[in-house]
Amino acid sequence: MRVLVAGANGQLGQDLRKALAAHGHEVTALGRADLDVTDRAAAVAAASGHDAVVNASAYTKVDDAETHEDEAYAINALGTENLAVAAAEAGARYVTVSTDYVFDGHATEPYAEDTPRDPINAYGRTKAAGEELALAAHPDGTYIVRTAWLYGAGGANFAKTMVKLAGSHETVSVVADQLGQPTWTGDLAEQIVALLESDAPSGVYHGTNSGQASWFEFAKAVFSAAGLNPDRVTPTDSATFVRPAPRPSYSVLAHGAWAKAGLAPMRSWEAALADAARQGVLDLETNDDTQRGGR
User: Pathway it acts in (predicted)?
Assistant: First the structure.
């Protein structure tokens, strides 16, 4: 299979490139400097000749999006639509990565894939719009893969920030009143490859590791995985960390669509974190700690 990856230099994009190559697929890896997803003609030209297109590009500065929503919309909505149009014209399947932020966070049980979108911040609105535009542009070939709380070797993320803070702070306060699903980009990349290799129907899938945790619980687990004392992590609440963009308090996603498609959901976040740590994902000395223009 010949696969185009847009946003290929982000932490997910890097793992996608590795996973696709490991499965014997031919990868065209394009970063922000190689492909401007807001340019439809460029997207169509890039997708030509490919069997699949994976969109890992995104405007991910959640707080900045509150005052730069037009810029976020251009990438997260129009860029997503452009790649869907490009995939349709190429006769290719299209996977675009979305987010738990398309929901309001008021639920008390995991969000099903068909739950109506109801974002509470600008970033979520732009990602929800991207989902709708992509499905409209290429309905028979679009796969929306919603993810959350990503961490990986190739970019800045919460897990690596915790390890970094441990080097300069005796204790670290982390919110305990927001629940979600820590998700390793290595696992998500493998799940996307499995989706592309299957005959699963188009539609929405939730690409998160199984289970749930608060940021506080995740931070304690990161400390333990990194060989640090987890008691150095102390709980606090969201009122202590007021941000420009409101965050959903509950971001747990259900995984029913995988079973319906005959595919296994992703493993538990605890098992994924342990494996990621063994592979050096939390090692700041050997990993690049910068954002790279993708997820």
Answer: Carbohydrate biosynthesis; dTDP-L-rhamnose biosynthesis
